[in-house]
Structures are given as structure tokens and as C-alpha cells.
Amino acid sequence: DAKTTQPNSMESNEEEPVHLPCNHSTISGTDYIHWYRQLPSQGPEYVIHGLTSNVNNRMASLAIAEDRKSSTLILHRATLRDAAVYYCILRDHPANAGGTSYGKLTFGQGTILTVHP
Amino acid sequence: NAGVTQTPKFRVLKTGQSMTLLCAQDMNHEYMYWYRQDPGMGLRLIHYSVGEGTTAKGEVPDGYNVSRLKKQNFLLGLESAAPSQTSVYFCASSYLRDRVTYGYTFGSGTRLTVV
Hints:
Chain A is mainly β. Chain A is about 0% helix and about 40% strand. Chain A starts with 8 loop residues before the first strand and ends with a strand. By secondary structure, chain B is mainly β. The interface of A and B includes residues 42, 107, 108 and 109 of A.
């Protein structure tokens, strides 16, 4: 699986935007970029995913570099409830190689986001 | 909408004891997974299942067994617990569409301590 690199930690103030970076220089053409987050004492939850174009949903926006070697998760107005570990994951995608993906999510260390009131 | 339910939420075992962790999902998902998470580490895949009656090994399968007798349930067994299996265990499920999996949903975890 292609590897991702994220900062160990980031800090933000409440109601300010947060930009969480992720580098994935070895991404293949068929890898989707997924973001999950894990709130304290909870299981991971899906945030957003994309392939080439920028994506928006109710939780966040995903900005993908033109060469796809990096991406940024954007929380437009951080709240205290956004304090979590954020994981950038490249999806195991052998479906495009003719097989069915069992869909393993490979988690790295993630970025610990602290939000100050 | 229960999603993915894990039982028990907490458990303390003595070395050598056995136990089974239960994962139940009500979303009719085909795929189910068991992960473990240790302090300072990301989640690591133990075993997974692509459908009823099928299971396969993940990254760290040693010391664990699994069964998927019903589509909605995925059981993780520890036959002889060891202190190294002290961890938080997460179950997840996903569905398959056009040969790609979507909709990953995780349970809230089981915190297991082996003394």
C-alpha cells in the first residue's frame, strides 16, 4: 500500500479554519484518498474521500493537489468537538487491477488535532 | 440505527483464559473487519471477512481466531490470552459496490486487559 505522511500534531483555536496536510508522493493513479477521524474513546469515523477533484461535504472539504502527491483536509470552523486524531489513508484498490478489493484500511499514526477554546 | 455494536465494552482476563468478542452490524454489509489499537499506534488489521462463512488473515492474526457464521455477526476469539493482547479492539463493516468497498462503519471498541 502507498504510504502517507502527516504531521504528528496540530493546534487550532475554536471557530478558526484548520488545514490538515497529508503527503502521499507514491500514490498510484487509481488510489482514492480517504480521511477518517477518531474522537477520544471512540472508533474511527469516515470524514471524506476523493480521487482527483476537490470534494466538499457537511463535515469538511478535501483539497487534492494537481499531481495528487499531497492533499489537505479543511475544517472550515473548528469546534471543540473536532479535537481528534485525523488519519489520511490511501485505499487498497485492486478492483482496478481486475480483482475485488477486500477494502483493507491501513492506518498510520495520524495527526492529533487540539482545538483551544 | 445501531450500526456496528461490539460486546463487551470492557473485559479483564487472566493469562491463559479464553474469550470471544462479538461484533454485530445491522446494515447488511458484506465485509467485516477486526482491528486492534495499541497506545501510540494506528489500527492494525487482525482478520477480515468478505462474506458469510469466509474469513482471512490480516496483518497481525497470530493468537486470534474468527468466525462468520451469519452475515451480521463477526466473532473474534482468543483461545489463550496473553498480556501482549492487551489492547482496544475495533470491529468495522463495509459494503461492496462495483467491486469497491464503501461505507466503513466502526464500532465503539472493546477494551481488553490481560493480566
